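Dear colleagues,

I hope this message finds you well. In preparation for our joint manuscript, I am sending the Cell envelope-related transcriptional attenuator domain-containing protein (Agromyces humatus) sequence together with its predicted structure, so that both groups work from identical material. I would be grateful if you could confirm receipt.
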Amino acid sequence: MKGEARAAGGEAVGPPRHGRVRRRSGVATFFKLAASVIAVIAVSAAAVVAYATIDLVRTVQQKPTVTLANEEILEGVPDIGALEGGLSFLLVGSDKRPADGSFGDPEIDSAVLNDVTMLVHLAQDHSHAEVVSFPRDMLVSVPECPDPADSTNTLSALFETPLNGVLHHGGLACVALTIEQLTGVKIPVGGVVEFQGVAALAEAVGGVEVCLADPVDDDLSGLHLGAGKHVITGYTALSFLRTRHGVGDGSDLGRIASQQTFLASLSRTMQSSGTLGNPVKLYSIAKVILSNMQLSNALQNPVTLVSIARALQAVDLSRIAFVQYPTVYTSDLRYVYPSPSAEAVDLALQQDLPMAVNPDATTDASFGTIPDPTPPATQPATPPATEPGASAMPTPTPTPTLPPATLLPDDVTGLTADQVRCATANPG
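The corresponding structure tokens are as follows:
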């Protein structure tokens, strides 16, 4: 045929046609590209999640486990954060010095002491949480405990012994049994954190703002800060939590009061910055916790830690109470022991009830803190009126009815997470 082209094999083909190539739709191209990107992101996200999970599990497996006497109450509980009667978590801060010598010779200055002992209670309905601090020099009775060095041996009971020696005596499980006997609350989970862990946690959240009513210069802890507000992190944060002689009345009670201001600020930081809702930040915090803590068996699963963190995220700051276990001094002023008001704290924990502290009790205590002198930002008295023709704002969802807080006796000190208070310097 005239004008017909031939292929290499002699087969006839039609003449070339120009300008008849089928054009792709711009919209179709966009959607195909978007689908490809989404697919890549989805695969990448799954890979990141898988890596993060494996990394956290590997970190957990590198730490020795601890068995608590009452962890069996968690068996068959699908959501650890909704345990009947609430979840009680024992947090112990060890006085063991880091190996790098940043806080003294680890061979000379170290001691396996629970200088910080806190009971974190998360309500069953997640409507409130309490953090109860127990003074290190409080005299307690210690029940018989399993020997952490020999599972076939039982350690003898102790009477009127300082609380901070229990970790050395019988480990975390023994501290848990001691606090259980003291408060009447079962503790299924817990952990021990050392010096480096606190510094690393402050780094992971990007720093914590603290307030000092006076300048503090404490060579023993290494804290040197002027009056006012400071965002502290790393070893400065650790020094702030360690300082005893520099704040309040120079006692451990004063240190607890300043530690509570730090923890309240940490709570505000984690909620306001969306930390607990940010997977990247949450992973960083989980990594820090797992790398620097010895956790009980029930907390070996990182998913469990995340579920507890998300439950705490839902608690309103005004319903997170930091309470110092009420005590009175012995006649020689060397130790303290629980005051009659401790029964009210125990009862609230046992009955899963929120606690309320009288702010004047904290301000008036010799070891307490003072309210933030900085006036709050002025808020408009009333919202602007809706202009004619403009649509009205939607009706807000009614706030669920929450159980009323139990007002603790006037000698019980503390604060809630939404309160900004300032640590005072030790005048002595």
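For the figure legend, we might mention the following. The CA atoms of residues 326 and 342 lie 6 Å apart. Confidence is low (pLDDT under 50) at residues 15-23, 30-34, 37-51, 378-397.

With kind regards,
E.M.
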